[in-house]
Design a protein that fits this description.
The protein has 79 residues and is mainly α. The protein is elongated. 0% of the residues are buried.
Length: 79
């Protein structure tokens, strides 16, 4: 097999992969959706359920938003 034949073979394989790639990606997407649907039918698992005995704290974004609101209220009250 000479270099020209190897390049032709690689070109054919490259075109085949380019044509097969959308189908393979779609198949993987469908399998992921099916898995998510099966999981949703079973209901929430033990790690998906929130524990009511555990105290929760607001997120950083909530603290930031509360701080911004209080600054606006204070600055709007001054003449």
């Amino acid at each position: 097999m000479n270099t020209h034949d190897a390049l032709d073979t690689l070109a054919v394989l490259g075109v085949f992969l380019l044509m097969a790639l959308p189908s393979l990606l779609g198949h993987a997407h469908d399998r992921r959706i099916d898995r998510q649907l099966r999981q949703a039918e079973r209901g929430p698992g033990p790690r998906d359920q929130n524990s009511s005995s555990k105290e929760t704290e607001p997120s950083t974004a909530t603290w930031y938003a509360d701080g911004r609101r209080s600054k606006k209220l204070v600055s709007s009250c001054t003449p």
